[in-house]
Amino acid sequence: MGSIKIYKQIFLCTLLIIIIYIPTTFAQDYYADLKIDVDSYGFVTIDGTTNYPDLLAKNTEIYTSKKQSYWLLNITKEENFTEFVYVLTLPEGSSINYIKNSGFIRIEENQGKLIINGFGENEVFSIQVQYQIGKPTEEGYKELDPVFILLIGVIIFLIVILIGIFVKEKVKPHDLKENGYDFKGLNQRQKQIIKLLIDRKTPLTQTDIQRQLNIPKAAVSRNIRRLEIKGLVEKEQIGMSNLIILKKI
Known about the structure:
Elements lengths: L1 H24 L4 E9 L5 E7 L6 E4 L3 E4 L2 E20 L4 E8 L2 E7 L2 E21 L4 H5 L3 H23 L19 H13 L3 E2 H8 L3 H13 L3 E6 L2 E6 L3
Parallel strand pairs: 1-5
Antiparallel strand pairs: 1-2, 2-3, 4-5, 5-8, 6-8, 7-8, 9-11, 10-11
């Protein structure tokens, strides 16, 4: 009887390990390299490359809503993405009230349109933007909830504190190279690409980079896109090839 009880305990422990291990083993790794366009009527088109199901869309309204003169764009996927990068273009004449996002973003303006460049690694994919089309009026300011205004003030205060902390933070010696390029925040493949361009002292095609570093073509393309967004390299098309140029410091 004692031996049967021991075997039963062993069986139950093994079953528990299998139950815990299997979901982890078969968890899907998602990635996305997207171009997101929003028109003045709230229709969203998402093009690009991703293995997340049903993320790509054309002229859909499922990601936007409107309250009075304020539009809200909300694209949130709760699953973990090993890496994502996107370029979000808002309608011409838009002004942003607030942004809540995962990863990192950079905002720029091109021909009257606001463009949000975002990227992240090993986290959920989320971008929420409240915006208006056209200049805000005095009436529009009166419509703002006092609680919302207070919340914005708190967010700005926290951002100022965080900026102060980052400014004071010392850059680690191994994150800087003698050429003056900052390697902080780059993954291993991005560092390899930058180092290769520095060592060669000449622009290289994506094919050359792929052969020299022996990494997959898709990975080279994604990481070069990330380096473009960070302002470290620029891409120039020559014939059928893309020439990757290291930006000067």
